[in-house]
Amino acid sequence: MHPLDTLKPFFDLHASRIATLSDRIWSLAELRYAESGSAGLHADGLAQAGFRIGQPLAGIPTAFVAEHGEGGPVVGLLGEYDALSGLNQQSGALQCRPSMDSPGPNGHGCGHHLLGAAAHLAALAVQHYLQLNGLPGRIRFYGCPAEEGGSGKTFMARAGVFDDLDAALTWHPASHTAVFDQSTLANIQASFVFKGRAAHAANAPHLGRSALDAVELMNVGVNYLREHMPPNARVHYAVTDSGGLSPNVVQARAEVLYLVRAIDNREASELYQRVCNVARGAALMTGCELELRFDKACSNLLLNDVLNRVMEAQLQHLGPLPVGEPERLLARDHHATLSASDVADAGRSLGAVLRGQGMPALFEGVKPYRGPAEGVMYGSTDVADVSWVTPTAQAWVACYAFGTPFHSWQMVSQGKTSLAHLGMVQAAKVLAGTAIALLTAAPDTLAAARAELRERRAGPYVCPIPAEVPLPWQRG
Ligand SMILES: [Zn+2]
After folding, report:
1. Per the structure, how many domains does the chain have?
2. Strand 137-144 vs strand 74-80: parallel, antiparallel, or unpaired?
3. Strand ranges, E, within 248-300
4. Is 129 in contact with 6 (CB distance < 8 Å)?
5. Is 386 in the same domain as 254?
6. Torsion angle of alpha carbons 366, 367, 369, 373, nearest 10°?
7. What is the number of H-type helices and E-type strands within the chain?
8. Ligand 1 center to 442 CA (angstroms)
């Protein structure tokens, strides 16, 4: 009997409890490195089920590991739970409207409340299966904070917490279902702080040295650099301190935050050095001092075809999402709030799968996996750093109306619906099925996955966050 068939009554029994857990995390909506309530809910639930808890992990208060089992291979499930700033939204509403039941500025606009909850349910299911069959093997749930803008897993990888894993598995809520088959961009984020000299802007401008001028010249310089950077690279910036509100004062301090992305760690590092040189030039031109503050980084994702095929077998075994009319109606209503370009964009990423079918309001099937895809997904994830340390696979699972963009009010609005809960349980099944397949497979499957990782990595893992960069809240 397929393990997922054996586990069907287990999932049926626990689905509503896990939906309640994800709803509570949705309402907490905690930002990076402040997810104490969400991490606590996960750790408490797993401790009550008999998992051994290690917390804090990697020196991060909201990171933890929960482990069950003895001997055998070790499979890690990555669970996230951080929200996004500025995305507070009323659950279920069909317009952008502030929430009445979750006040505060944040919202779960990337579905990480579902992400962690599905990994939690999968960990419990694998534990149940190992116990039922008296099998060796260890299953771990990694409580991973700060995926959004904090590179939590990269700091965790730097501390070595994934080093003894045989494989890592995760998923991401989406508006379609498939094995994650594209790499992602490496990135480096750093602050450039310029320090000049204040002066009366009319009476003694010759005595002033404007830090704001330095920021502006740096931005102009980087915008000229764009023409000469690799085609897949991306550079974004935000002026985080313009030096004050008084135009009659020469601004003595100003700061700009840069996010530099490129196809791999080497190109990201090279481009970052060129951006640093532009900043040095701006400091020279304006007579300011420059302080460089490395914030965080993450690697490009290394796909693992061996693991992806094991995951694909689970997706195919499960088949279409088990939705009913309520979920179809819900998807239709929320789909109607999306722009045509959002939907067309989602359709393009699915390519031939949708050809001739028009755009569905709900993607119920599974996009077939055809091996690692060409090109890159234009975004970054800290899962990538786990993928450099241990073979890693991810799935997309539909939890939202087709075309729902990430980091949108629509994604927050749909986060507690029956459709979101259903996709979350489907994801838990995919993760549990894959983990059990790996824990019970002949050793050569894991050996082949490890060999593939070594070949793709072509050398040891070097964490893109240098050893001397402190954790974000430990900085002066
Ligand atoms: Zn996300």
Report:
1. 2
2. parallel
3. 253-262, 289-298
4. yes
5. no
6. -150
7. 15, 15
8. 33
Rounded Cα distance, 263 and 376, in Å: 8
- Regarding whether 24 and 149 lie in a shared domain, the answer is yes
Amino acid at 85: S
What is the rounded CA–CA span in Å between residue 101 and residue 108?
14
- Ligand 1 mean position, distance from CA 83 (Å): 9
pLDDT tens-digit map of 227-277: 999 999 999 999 999 999 999 999 999 999 999 999 999 999 999 999 999
Distance CA 205, CA 113 (A): 52
Q: How far is the CA of 205 from the centre of ligand 1 (A)?
A: 47
Q: How far apart are CA 192 and CA 295, in angstroms?
A: 10
| Ligand 1 center–CA 139 separation, angstroms | 23
Contact 186, 267 (CB under 8 A): yes
Query: Cβ of 206: how many Cβ atoms within 10 Å?
Result: 7
Q: Are residues 409 and 325 in the same domain?
A: yes
The order of strands in the sheet holding 137-144 is: 52-54, 64-70, 137-144, 74-80, 167-174, 392-398, 178-179
- For 29, the 3-state DSSP assignment is coil
Q: Name the residue range of residue 37's domain.
A: 3-183+300-457
Please indicate, yes or no, if residue 466 is contained in any of the structural domains.
no
The answer to whether residue 476 is domain-embedded is no
Tell me how far the alpha carbon of residue 32 lies from the centroid of ligand 1, in angstroms.
12
Q: Per-residue pLDDT tens for 105-153? A: 899 999 999 999 999 999 999 999 999 999 999 999 999 999 998 999 9
* pTM higher than 0.70: yes
Question: Please, are residues 373 and 396 in contact by the beta-carbon 8 Å criterion?
Answer: no
- Distance, in Å, from the CA atom of 413 to the CA atom of 404, rounded to the nearest integer, reads 11
Residues around ligand 1, an ion, CB closer than 5 A: 110
CB neighbourhood size of 320 (10 A):
12
* Cα–Cα nearest to 124, from 33, 51, 188: 51
For the chain, the residue count is 476
Residue 242 contacts residue 193 (beta carbons within 8 Å):
no
Q: Edge-to-edge, what's the strand order for the sheet holding 289-298? A: 234-241, 253-262, 186-195, 289-298
